[in-house]
TrEMBL record:
Keyword Transferase: yes
Family recorded in the similarity comment: Belongs to the methylamine corrinoid protein family.
Residue span(s) of domain B12-binding: 89-220
Stated name of the protein: histidine kinase
Length: 606
């Protein structure tokens, strides 16, 4: 069956990866240009998919399926793209910012950018600002795309943009941000160039920002002419050229502004009185036969011959060398005029054009070298600045570590004092006082020294027991507790201090306000490769408006004012940081009857 562009488009829309691969193979076998497969096939299909997504006719899962099918086809085209048969319209660096490990939106954007002809460098998830900066310096992208799902990581986007500014690269790359916790106002405040709510909108935004497919504007390095001709020798060269050929030359930029002294180029005005009624101006020079090295030969308004040779490189024209004025052999002109200006044969004209071609080529080669050197020097200066900034941060970190060590002197003194008090209480027969003091000392040491580490669930439960013992000692008639955690989950690793804050919330917000007190139960068991923890109390419960505020913080990442359940959200985010999307925290509460918090996370010993 022959190749059909419509079949390819429909296969992508349907998310049929096998058919997409086969249609691409058919297209290549039929000699279809790979660039056309991308533009008229993949891009056209994703335009349809994007429109359906915006009209809520399909959902994110459908978008992912179609994107993966298209990516299968792109793999078939990859060898042609790498071989240069498909020229990228731009280069993009994408990544999920530090503290966030969600990648669905990022991956979808990467696929759609590749389908649109972009070269994509994917840095992955949980990417530090310094890593983004290093990648920008290394790859010189047109656009940097920052993704986030958690509102708690929104600040990392601003830090990344600030790091680019510190390194001196902010003005050299467009920054586009996207994700649930953002909008256009927030994006503008953090200094981004644009915000996109989804991948389909991001692709068009990026194209608009960078002008995809347009060539970079060509420039002439300021030092090019000085270095080429030598300092102070440009006028000498112009005079030498005039002595040798009788012609004057001047160099202009792309707008026609002189880059060199005009010299005698405008001296033809002295001959204006000789040009009146000059029949030579009617002699056509556009049909001259000869090797003029791509020079443009034309007559001025009065009929004298001028030569323009372009200063052009791969990125376009930066200016021109203008040369004149003269007559050509055979031009009908007054004898006074032929005596006043050079009269060149076709061979002479070819020789002049050859000389201009050589000079132009040398200037543009030198210009290319100078621009590269200038860019390298800017990169070097930026990188040195970046390294200095890194050194400052490292020094600040060392200072902070020193302050932490110094601050530990007081806790050590407190721990030692508490242990001394506990021993004295034991010697004096105050067993309950001794147990409470030791429990307090253990709890303080645990919370202060291990907060950045993962611990075993057994260690976390021990801290919960110490906390509950202290509270039961304080409120012997109002608080009862029970810890029922099965032994086969005690070796599981969890972030430090994820259970104690939840238990403390239950005691302070659930049971203390209840006049008769109540009971709290902590239970834990293993279900397959998951650990299930439940913290249940029969306290006053959580008001509906507070439950909604907690939900907004936990899921949507936005809330107004303070929330008494902030500890719940903090625990959830730390679990996400440790386990990614493979964890859950659920809160159910009935005012007046109590609250139940359930945690689920993978069982791992690492």
């Amino acid at each position: 069956m022959p190749f059909s562009l419509e079949n390819l488009i429909q296969a992508v829309i349907n998310g049929n990866a096998v058919q997409v691969r086969e249609e691409v193979k058919k297209a290549l076998a039929a000699g279809v240009d790979p660039a056309r497969i991308i533009s008229d096939g993949f891009v056209a299909a994703m335009d349809v998919v994007g429109e359906r997504f915006e009209r809520n006719e399909i959902y994110v899962t459908d978008l992912i399926i179609t994107a993966r099918a298209m990516h299968t086809g792109l793999k078939e085209l990859k060898p042609f793209m790498l071989a240069g048969q498909v020229q990228p319209v731009g280069r993009a660096i994408i990544g999920t910012v530090q503290g966030d490990i969600h990648d669905i939106g990022k991956n979808l954007l990467g696929i759609m950018l590749e389908a649109s002809g972009f070269e994509v460098i994917d840095l992955g998830v949980n990417v530090a600002p310094t890593t983004f900066v290093e990648a920008v310096i290394k790859y010189h992208p047109d656009v940097l795309c920052l993704s986030a799902l958690l509102s708690s990581t929104r600040g990392a986007m601003g830090e990344t943009i600030a790091a680019l500014q510190e390194a001196g690269w902010r003005s050299k790359v467009k920054v586009v941000v996207g994700g649930t916790p953002l909008n256009e106002t927030i994006a503008a405040k953090m200094g981004a160039d644009g915000y996109a709510p989804d991948a389909t909108a991001a692709v068009q935004l990026i194209k608009d920002l960078i002008g995809a497919g347009q060539k970079r504007q060509a420039v002439l390095a300021p030092a090019t002419l000085d270095l080429f001709f030598g300092e102070g020798s440009l006028e000498d060269l112009q005079l030498a050229f005039t002595r040798m050929t009788g012609l004057h030359l001047v160099m202009v930029d792309a707008a026609g502004n002189p880059l060199t002294p005009l010299g005698g180029f405008l001296e033809c005005s002295r001959h204006c009185h000789l040009l009146q009624g000059n029949p030579a101006k009617d002699v056509d020079v556009t049909t001259l036969a000869g090797n003029f090295k791509e020079a443009f030969i034309y007559r001025c308004h009065a009929g004298l011959v001028e030569i323009s040779y372009p200063l052009a490189g791969e990125d376009g024209t930066v200016g021109a060398i203008l040369c004149g004025h003269c007559l050509l052999e055979g031009d009908p002109a007054p004898a006074q005029l032929q005596a006043a200006v050079p009269v060149l044969s076709i061979k002479d004209l070819e020789a002049v054009c050859g000389l201009l071609s050589f000079v132009s080529g040398q200037i543009m080669q030198l210009n290319a070298v100078l621009l590269v050197n200038k860019e390298l020097e800017e990169q070097r200066a930026s990188f040195i600045h970046f390294l200095k900034r890194q050194h400052q941060l490292e020094q600040a970190l060392k200072d902070a570590e020193l302050k932490v060590l110094q601050a530990q002197v007081n806790p050590h003194f407190l721990f030692n004092s508490l242990n001394t008090i506990a021993r004295l209480a034991l010697f004096e027969g105050a067993a309950t006082t001794e147990k409470m003091v030791r429990a307090l000392a253990r709890l303080m040491r645990y919370s202060l020294y291990q907060v950045k580490e993962t611990v075993t669930l057994a260690e976390e439960i021990a801290a919960v027991r110490d906390y509950l013992f202290i509270q039961e000692t304080r409120f012997p008639d109002r608080l009862q507790s029970q810890v029922l955690v099965e032994e086969d989950v005690l070796e599981a690793r969890v972030p430090c201090m994820v259970l104690q804050p939840l238990v403390e919330n239950a005691v302070i917000h659930g049971l203390e306000p209840k006049e008769e007190g109540g009971r709290i139960t902590v239970s834990g068991r293993r279900v397959g490769d998951q650990v299930h923890i439940e913290i249940k109390d029969d306290g006053i419960g959580i008001p509906p408006e507070v439950q909604k505020a907690i939900f907004d913080l936990q899921v949507r990442g936005g809330s107004k004012g303070q929330v008494s359940g902030l500890g719940i959200v903090n625990v959830y985010r730390r679990l996400q940081h440790q386990f990614g999307s493979n964890c859950a925290l659920d809160v159910t509460s009935t005012p007046g009857k109590g609250t139940c918090i359930q945690l689920t996370f993978p069982y791992t010993k690492e």
